[in-house]
Amino acid sequence: DWYRNVFAIVGGSHQANFDGTTIDLQKHAYLGIEFPNYWNLRTFVINDATSFDDRRTRGGPTVKVAGNTFGHLQVSTDPRRGAVFDVQLRGATGVDGTKMYAFAPGVALKPAANLFVQLSPSYSHDEQSQQYIRRQADATATAFGGARYVFSHLETRIMSLNTRVNWTMRPALTLQVFAQPFFASGDYSRFREFAAPRTLEMLDYGTDIGTIAQDPATRAYTVDPDGPAGPAAPFTVTDPNFSSRSLRGTAVLRWEYRPGSTMFFVWTQQRSGVSHFGDYDFGRDSRALLGDRPDNVFLVKATYWIGR
Predict the structure, then answer these.
(1) Whose CA is closest to 81, among 114, 118, 38?
(2) Are the C-beta atoms of 226 and 273 separated by less than 8 Å?
(3) What is the pLDDT of residues 96-119, one digit of tens each?
(4) What's phi and psi for 238, nearest 5 deg?
(5) How far apart are CA 151 and CA 238, in angstroms?
(6) Number of C-alpha atoms within 13 angstroms, CB side, residue 203?
(7) Tally of CB atoms within 10 A around 194
(8) How many CB atoms lie under 10 A from the CB of residue 219?
């Protein structure tokens, strides 16, 4: 009397490479419930244990990656109604103190039998403590085979809004519209390297080892991994911070001018841009997006049914 159906999964997975090294160890659980009023609840939890990663250095020695626990919760209302609401919450926390959270509400409106409107905004914030930057040859880095593998702490923010409209004006005439403004930023900080292969410990430049300084003019970083008195040569890291933006939109008018014969009138616009701010500012990035040069594509396609 309290549910229509219940679906549950509990499981795990283990992966090892051909050396027998564990590269993934995961436990997960899922629960989905459809209630008598046709509301739906879906939730799952994934726990990734700290394990080895033979690809994190892009071909270099194996290192360890921090484990994390990820959770997801989704609630949606009765899909038979004229207004259907959906909300998704996601979050994660890592053993290295990093966090992730995301919020994605949505609504689908059916004000009339021939009209459908859907709005799906989303926002996410993510932290990574082991973001790969580059490989730097250095004969003094004997533990890593004569190279230093540079990583950093990365904080990303992503915001988007998916919009869909389907309008059936007549049985032979329909209009479909899709638009997606998208904003993303990445802030790199605490440049670092692993203390040794097959370990989780990382050493920050300028704090744990060596020195690091940024040139205000070029925004590039100069890293001396063992300080001015050490034998290792300094190297430069280009500022990887970014703020990207884009807008994709498509409108399709479909006209069946005779049975089996159809014409499509399509307009697609795409505009995008990248800056090196590293932070997120909706007003600034929105104004920049409107100022970006658009690419417009107009397309006409016709089909004709032979034999009528």
Answers:
(1) 38
(2) no
(3) 999 999 999 999 999 999 999 999
(4) -65, 140
(5) 13
(6) 18
(7) 23
(8) 13
Q: What six digits make up the tokens of 146?
A: 């004569």
User: What's the sign of the alpha-carbon dihedral 150, 123, 266, 301?
Assistant: positive
Q: Tens digit of pLDDT for each residue in 109-158?
A: 999 999 999 999 999 999 999 999 999 999 999 999 999 999 999 999 99
pLDDT tens for 64-92 read 999 999 999 999 999 999 999 999 999 99
Pair 47, 69: CB distance under 8 Å: yes
Token digits of residue 130: 């082991």
| Residues 110 and 83: beta-carbon distance below 8 Å | yes
pLDDT at 308 over 80: no
Kindly state the average pLDDT of the residues 278-298: 92
Q: Which residues contact 69 (CB under 8 A, 6 or more apart)?
A: 45, 46, 47, 48, 92, 93
Quote the CA–CA distance of 6 and 35 in Å, as a whole number: 9
The pLDDT of residue 276: 86
Residue whose tokens read 């933006």: 245
Left, alpha or beta for 145 (phi > 0: left; psi -120 to 50: alpha)?
A: left
**pTM: predicted TM-score of the whole model, two decimal places:** 0.90
Choose among 112, 102, 207, 117: nearest CA to 153. 207
Spatial contact of 191 and 212, defined as CB atoms under 8 Å apart: yes
Residue with tokens 């014969």: 261
Q: Cβ distance 237 to 221 under 8 Å?
A: yes
